[in-house]
Amino acid sequence: MLDTIVKFLFSVIRVSTPLVFGAVAACVTRKAGLLNLAIESMMLASALTGVLVSGATQSLLLGMLAGFAAAIAITMIISYSAFVLKCDLYLVSIAMNTALVGGTVFVMYLFTQQKANTAGAIPSLFVGSMELPLIKNIPLLGGILSGHNVLTYVAFLMVFLVWFLLYKTKIGLRIRSVGENPQAAESVGISPRRIYFLSFGMSGFIAALGGMYMSMGYLTWFARDMIAGRGMISMSAMNIAVGEPVSATLAAMMFGTADALSNYMQLGKFPSELISMFPYVCTVAILVLMAVIRTVKATAERNKI
């Protein structure tokens, strides 16, 4: 029984990793007063590019650099369209998500002549796992926390780094000031447009790690639409936490738990359609619950007044 629980908790951390990256990426733009609805496309672009370049060059470093470049290129296209050409940010982001679902398949077909995945067609490199020196020898805890992919540990380190950036640095103060009142920030010499570009670029960098984890850590190949809505679930985690990195991580872990449960449901005699919809039903249920709690709190505060 204990062994099953340890394996399940290990699985929760494993499947939560891309959600943590996505949620933290969304927190950066939220603090700048924006919603990054294009996390899905950033993760897709980096996942495919990392596999293609690492396979072609047989260099993990070049593959990951290319993955970062692909995601940041997406952010720059969206930022230029929204903040320079004055297009609607959210429509541009949704269009980018839709375009990349088909675009990644098209690019994959050009390089591999395959439309399902790159397995067997490209010898992609991948990021390995890591045993934690002291923790691995601790009963139960070692089985849960040790032996994960290196990018899993990077994800939780990123939570601290983003929190530190937002609350303990000058640039973080500027991001938050623009998010709270762009006109006031501009009056003291801070360029909101520059902050918007910067926050989207940082968000793309973090989201790229989530995409490359999916194709070069969780799996070792790229598959058609492999992000499978994780970008939107990450947005939900960020919204629940109102843009706070630590709280967003906890919310992402809740969704990761639902995802892990759906994986374990495959061992039972559950319909495949039910298993596929389970994480998303949990997402909607949690969002509804949080909305009800906030409404109740707001009503209670008004009654006090």
| CATH topology category name | ABC transporter involved in vitamin B12 uptake, BtuC
Strand content: under 5%
- Any idea how many domains? 1
Mean pLDDT: 90
Proportion of helical residues:
over 70%
> What order do the SSEs take from the amino end to the carboxyl end, as H and E?
HHHHEHEHHHHHHH
Low-confidence region ranges: none
- Architecture (CATH level 2) name: Orthogonal Bundle
Label the overall shape. globular
- Please give the number of β-strands: 2
Span between N and C termini? Answer: 52 Å
Structure described in brief:
With 305 residues, this protein is mainly α. It has 12 helices and 2 strands; from the N terminus they run H-H-H-H-E-H-E-H-H-H-H-H-H-H.
Name the descriptors.
305 residues, mainly alpha, ABC transporter involved in vitamin B12 uptake, BtuC, two-stranded antiparallel ribbon, 2 strands, 76% helix, globular, transmembrane helix, transmembrane transporter activity, ABC transporter permease, ABC_transp_permease, membrane
Describe this structure in words.
Helix content is 76%, strand content 1%. Helix 2 packs across helix 9 (192-218) and helix 3 runs antiparallel to helix 9. The relative contact order is 0.19. The mean pLDDT is 90. By secondary structure, the chain is mainly α. It starts with a helix and ends with a helix. The chain contains 12 helices and 2 strands, in the order ααααβαβααααααα. It has a single domain, classed as ABC transporter involved in vitamin B12 uptake, BtuC (Orthogonal Bundle). The chain has helices at 2-31, 39-57, 60-84, 89-112, 141-145, 150-168, 170-180, 182-187, 192-218, 230-240, 245-265, 272-304; strands at 129-130, 148-149. Strands 1-2 form a two-stranded antiparallel ribbon.
